[in-house]
Amino acid sequence: MPAGSVSDIWSAAGVPYVANPFGTFIPIGQGPLASSPTGGTITPSVISGGHSSFVFTVTGTPTNISFTLFTTQAGWTCNATNITANAANRAGERVVMIASSTSGATMQNQLVATGTAQAFVASDEVRITCDGY
Asked: Who has greater pLDDT, 25 or 116?
């Protein structure tokens, strides 16, 4: 693949590619999607550059959910919103990142008041955005 900066876009076989901040090119809106979920399933949404957004649907009642992302130089910073809990007015819950590596992250459902792990409810829809660094 051609060398370039983050602003470089090129096409191969009709598929547009963008350079990510880590010196490689990935298909715009495609590419190395989040995968290997623990505690649920993943519906890909947007992947471009060093950013990934997707929906994680929880199966069972785990307190932690984890997933694999494409490899970055240093790691990932992820933020999440449990849209199902918000819509059901389940007060006092938040989803926070508790671990990350160069190729993935782990999120935990917690009680805001104490920081204690709280089980997700089966079928919770957690919307996650991650930025590689």
From this structure: 116
> What is the band of 51 on the pLDDT scale with cuts at 50, 70, 90?
confident
pTM of the model: 0.72
DSSP state of 80: E
Name the residue ranges covered by the structural domains of the chain: 30-132
Distance CA 19, CA 10 (A): 9
Report DSSP state, residue 114: T
Could you give the 3-state DSSP secondary structure of residue 101?
strand
Look at the domain 30-132 and name its fold: Immunoglobulin-like (2.60.40)
State how far the Cα of 44 lies from the Cα of 56, in Å rounded to an integer.
Answer: 9
| Residue of higher predicted confidence among 94 and 2 | 94
**In angstroms, what is the C-alpha Rg of the chain?**
16
Q: What is the dihedral of CA 85, 79, 129, 88, to 10 degrees?
A: 10
**Distance of alpha carbon 88 from alpha carbon 84, whole angstroms:** 6
Residues 49/103, Cβ–Cβ less than 8 Å: no
